Amino acid sequence: MANISHTTEAVSTNLMARALREAFYAGLIALGLFVLFVGLKTDQNILNELVLVQRWGLLATFVALAMVGRFLAVAYVRPWLEARKAAKAAAPVVEREAGFVARNFNLLAIVALIAYPLVMVAVFGFQGSLKWVDNFGIQILIYVLLAWGLNIVVGLAGLLDLGYVAFYAVGAYSYALLSSYLGLSFWLLLPIAGVLAALWGTILGFPVLRLKGDYLAIVTLAFGEIIRLVLINWTEVTKGTFGISGIAKASVFGIWSFDISAANNFAKAFGLPMSSAYYKIFLFYLALALCMLAAFVTIRLRRMPIGRAWEALREDEIACRSLGINTVTTKLTAFATGAMFGGIAGSFFAVRQGFVSPESFVFLESAIILAIVVLGGMGSLVGIAVAATVMIGGTELLREMNFLKQIFGPDFTPELYRMLIFGLAMIVVMVWKPRGFVGSREPTAFLRERKSVSGSFTKEGHG
Amino acid sequence: MALETDTMTKDPILKVEHLSMRFGGLMAINDLSFEAYRGDITALIGPNGAGKTTVFNCITGFYKPTMGMITLRQKAGKEYLLERMSDYEVNRDAKVARTFQNIRLFSGLTVLENLLVAQHNKLMLASGYTILGLLGFPTYKAAVGESIERAKYWLDKANLTDRADDPAGDLPYGAQRRLEIARAMCTGPEFLCLDEPAAGLNPRESLALNELLRSIRKDTDTSILLIEHDMSVVMEISDHVVVLEYGQKISDGNPDYVKHDPKVIAAYLGVEDDEVEEVIEQIEEIAPGETH
């Protein structure tokens, strides 16, 4: 007994000694690294002379931080992690029954989304709910729709498309131009925008079909830029960088309008006080309906031969061709279907903003949509919706964090850091879950039981 | 030659005439002509680099041959010139299916899904090119049921029914080989090309493969062309063997004939050209009468 306590004591003193030693080394390295960066600073004085400012106190803080951090990591954090790992390995694996929330996640999410605007109105009042319904609700839903569209191209068919925002732009400008010049209604233009975007998807698809992987990505990237540059430079039609403003609002199937001057104004018809919140709430439900439709179509398509061919294409293109699948038309349909979703999202974006300009369709948008698809888990609708909520909602939420000003001083503007945090969050998620939030794949057909396919078997596609 | 009288009675399904394939300065196949007969298992053998897989790729449309004609005659009498068709048309229209030397399964799809993808063209038609299927027409549901029945039939044949809902990439090697053959059979081929189906199999898996191939020959009217290194497989199941060396045919006939052909022995054992005569003499001594 005494022997055992003696050995543990020895181990712990050993550990402490090592921790102190490593802390000392870490401090030494930190000193070497920071002595010139932090300890000395060049500055200009009033006479415009270069002077050397010595900041030994700050340097000491840096070194002390490194030493304390290293000491804590070696002495406490690492043994704790090891102990936890050992405990985990020792504990028997228990098959846990999925909880109520996990089993009914989709249903609960839809119910929550339907109730969302009503709850927001109840909590913040009509005017106060605007921000929550519009900036959070509608914007996230637009990104969900876009990401689900890109999911067909990237997640299912495995074709890396970096210019997806082009189809978003085609949809938005289709609505903006056709409604301003021809006065067509939103309900007519929504499908037209989808069809036009699909047409452009096919036009893009043709030349890039023989390309694969990186080459395909570069060409789609170029295509996205071409569309944006055309929008900027074709000033007679698109008004260039000024953009198109005063785009007509959507109406409730032409029965009630949201124009204040119109006779059939929604608020007037129901004798409600005037507010722009009704329009936003209407748009929210419209966006939700479009997303539900997109999800329904995607789920259905996956069970169609074309959907299986897309996934097969992602897994192995040569095998597809050996089975008599025309990979050219299969890729084209993937491009066109994805583009159609993007076009519909674009026309919805135009109607929500009332203003479109090429500024909204820069490469960064494509990158964000692609990031959402990858983070969510390629091919998974639920994962992508969660990723869109976290990413778009998270960056929006940063705008709201005014209390951070009290910590970091009044000059601190949290929204300037949102891209930095967005990037950090992506790295963390990718390290923690390399296949995205939902890495597994649901099979489209089964004989006995539906077993989801682990992400380690699915491929990312090379086309 | 005994071979000539044999072929007169048989109906060729595939006729390869004067096939040549040049890759830059390399003549991978040089003026190759052979026939495969309906209902037979034809084996294409030869040392490494003899051009066997190139012949396969020419037949299945993955390569466009530099010269030559490849004619496939279906049971109904329709003829296809395979060298003029693109790879997917060779399968879709001419009904030629193939497998690959390095297995090409859809590893992230389940075994059943692999077999459903193989029935793509039939299902595509039944789903009205997706539109009727999206609207939930009953014709599509019926077609899917039929396809699953067909998949079940081949799962049973390949002894994979228990693994139907597992991802294809999770199967052991031998099972993956059988699945690839089952998948090719699900396209409903008249002519099946197998590229080294027994490569890397253990003896038990090899036996299961032979059984599957025999049952394909017995129960369907699919003719088989196979590339194989494993001589026990070739000699046991094939009816007709074509031997290639350096892109040229050096022997053609039944397994017994080929086995004793001095040219084949020379090609496999690596004998100098001037020693060939010597080898022939030696064979004559060992097995008189068997060489022709």
From TrEMBL, chain A:
<feature type="transmembrane region" description="Helical">
    <location>
        <begin position="140"/>
        <end position="169"/>
    </location>
</feature>
<dbReference type="InterPro" id="IPR001851">
    <property type="entry name" value="ABC_transp_permease"/>
</dbReference>
<dbReference type="InterPro" id="IPR043428">
    <property type="entry name" value="LivM-like"/>
</dbReference>
<feature type="transmembrane region" description="Helical">
    <location>
        <begin position="367"/>
        <end position="395"/>
    </location>
</feature>
<feature type="transmembrane region" description="Helical">
    <location>
        <begin position="278"/>
        <end position="299"/>
    </location>
</feature>
<feature type="transmembrane region" description="Helical">
    <location>
        <begin position="416"/>
        <end position="432"/>
    </location>
</feature>
<feature type="domain" description="High-affinity branched-chain amino acid transport system permease LivHM N-terminal">
    <location>
        <begin position="19"/>
        <end position="116"/>
    </location>
</feature>
<dbReference type="InterPro" id="IPR021807">
    <property type="entry name" value="LivHM_N"/>
</dbReference>
<feature type="transmembrane region" description="Helical">
    <location>
        <begin position="105"/>
        <end position="128"/>
    </location>
</feature>
<protein>
    <submittedName>
        <fullName>High-affinity branched-chain amino acid ABC transporter permease LivM</fullName>
    </submittedName>
</protein>
<feature type="transmembrane region" description="Helical">
    <location>
        <begin position="181"/>
        <end position="203"/>
    </location>
</feature>
<keyword id="KW-1133">Transmembrane helix</keyword>
<feature type="transmembrane region" description="Helical">
    <location>
        <begin position="332"/>
        <end position="355"/>
    </location>
</feature>
<dbReference type="Pfam" id="PF02653">
    <property type="entry name" value="BPD_transp_2"/>
</dbReference>
<keyword id="KW-0812">Transmembrane</keyword>
<keyword id="KW-0472">Membrane</keyword>
<feature type="transmembrane region" description="Helical">
    <location>
        <begin position="56"/>
        <end position="77"/>
    </location>
</feature>
<dbReference type="Pfam" id="PF11862">
    <property type="entry name" value="DUF3382"/>
</dbReference>
<keyword id="KW-1003">Cell membrane</keyword>
<feature type="transmembrane region" description="Helical">
    <location>
        <begin position="215"/>
        <end position="234"/>
    </location>
</feature>
<feature type="transmembrane region" description="Helical">
    <location>
        <begin position="23"/>
        <end position="40"/>
    </location>
</feature>
From TrEMBL, chain B:
<dbReference type="InterPro" id="IPR027417">
    <property type="entry name" value="P-loop_NTPase"/>
</dbReference>
<feature type="domain" description="ABC transporter">
    <location>
        <begin position="14"/>
        <end position="271"/>
    </location>
</feature>
<dbReference type="InterPro" id="IPR051120">
    <property type="entry name" value="ABC_AA/LPS_Transport"/>
</dbReference>
<dbReference type="GO" id="GO:0005524">
    <property type="term" value="F:ATP binding"/>
</dbReference>
<dbReference type="InterPro" id="IPR032823">
    <property type="entry name" value="BCA_ABC_TP_C"/>
</dbReference>
<comment type="similarity">
    <text>Belongs to the ABC transporter superfamily.</text>
</comment>
<keyword id="KW-0813">Transport</keyword>
<protein>
    <submittedName>
        <fullName>ABC transporter ATP-binding protein</fullName>
    </submittedName>
</protein>
<keyword id="KW-0547">Nucleotide-binding</keyword>
<dbReference type="Pfam" id="PF00005">
    <property type="entry name" value="ABC_tran"/>
</dbReference>
<dbReference type="InterPro" id="IPR003439">
    <property type="entry name" value="ABC_transporter-like_ATP-bd"/>
</dbReference>
<dbReference type="Pfam" id="PF12399">
    <property type="entry name" value="BCA_ABC_TP_C"/>
</dbReference>
<keyword id="KW-0029">Amino-acid transport</keyword>
<dbReference type="InterPro" id="IPR003593">
    <property type="entry name" value="AAA+_ATPase"/>
</dbReference>
<keyword id="KW-0067">ATP-binding</keyword>
